[in-house]
Amino acid sequence: MSQLIVEKLTISYSQSVKALDNVSLAVNKGECVGIVGESGSGKSTLAKVLLGLQPYKEGDITFNGNSIVPKKKAELREYRKQVQMVFQDANSTLNPKLPIWKSVLEPLDNFQEVKPSILNREETSRKELAMSLLEMVGLDAHLLERFPGELSGGQKQRVSIARALSLEPGLLICDEPTASLDVTVQKQILQLLKNLQEKTEMTILFISHDIRAVTFLCNKIMVLKDGIVVDRFPLEDLYHYNRHPYTKALIKAASF
């Protein structure tokens, strides 16, 4: 059974403009699925809807067998505990006035009932807890007391990933997490996500305009254009002759 099911999701900004048009998607537990498309294709809108940040009227979303109804606060809170997000701009998710160790623990402070198996909350101090999370993403203890403004872009994105992993989510949504980083750091973050996914077997929905990043990380790919799903395929069929022309254009532009 699929862990996340999106059926016929449509988001309309007007009668003539649809951000998403009859989008359907199924993600199985432990899979890494990529959503790829250029700017304006509807990728970020889909991410917002999946996080409950944007309401929807047409379509249905099911997670772990339960329908997601954003207007019901109790259900939405439980859902957000299970679904975490890594955004493109880490600066927008980290409080500039908080030291890194406090920022990392914010999700666990908001959901104190969560006791992830990757951590032992009873036998560690809060700083030790934060350090364990930072170590998971390859950051050193000397960063604990630093503030976001003192970190590089790559370090801040690693902190954002650590925050998201703190709740041991069933689904991690990554919305262009490497777009604002230089090429070398992009590769490091992608490798980190790949290693974490293999280690924890968490489900990842990876959203990007860069088909190279998507093919590096994901085993299934869905292509969005103007809010419409124009192609979907397993990674091994990337070069299949019947790929959609838009997919072929993305591949050509990426200079594979």
Produce a short descriptive summary.
The protein has 256 residues and is of the alpha/beta class.
- The CATH level-2 architecture is identified as 3-Layer(aba) Sandwich
Radius of gyration: 18 Å
Largest sheet report: 6 strands, mixed
Q: pLDDT average, as an integer?
A: 88
H and E string: EEEHEEHEHHHEHEHEEH
What is the count of DSSP helices, taking H or I runs of 4+ residues? 8
**Backbone structural class:** alpha/beta
CATH homology group: P-loop containing nucleotide triphosphate hydrolases
User: What gross morphology would you assign?
Assistant: globular
Secondary structure: number of strands:
10
Please give the share of residues in helix. Answer: 25-40%
CATH topology: Rossmann fold
Distance between the termini: 34 Å
How many distinct domains? 1
CATH class: Alpha Beta
Sheet with the most strands: spatial strand order? 6-7-8-3-9-10
Low-confidence stretches: none
Q: Beta fraction of the residues? A: 15-25%
Pfam families: ABC_tran
Protein name: ABC transporter ATP-binding protein
GO molecular function: ATP binding; ATP hydrolysis activity
Domain ABC transporter: 4-251
Can you give keywords for this protein?
alpha/beta; six-stranded mixed beta sheet; Rossmann fold; 8 helices; 23% strand; globular; four-stranded antiparallel beta sheet; 10 strands; 256 residues
Describe the protein in words.
The strands form two sheets. This protein has a six-stranded mixed beta sheet with strand order 6-7-8-3-9-10, sandwiched between helices. It is of the alpha/beta class. It has helices spanning 43-51, 73-82, 100-110, 126-136, 153-165, 183-200, 211-217, 245-253; strands spanning 4-12, 18-27, 32-36, 58-63, 66-67, 83-86, 171-175, 203-208, 220-225, 228-234. It is globular, with a radius of gyration of 18 Å. It has a single domain (4-253), classed as P-loop containing nucleotide triphosphate hydrolases (Rossmann fold, 3-Layer(aba) Sandwich).
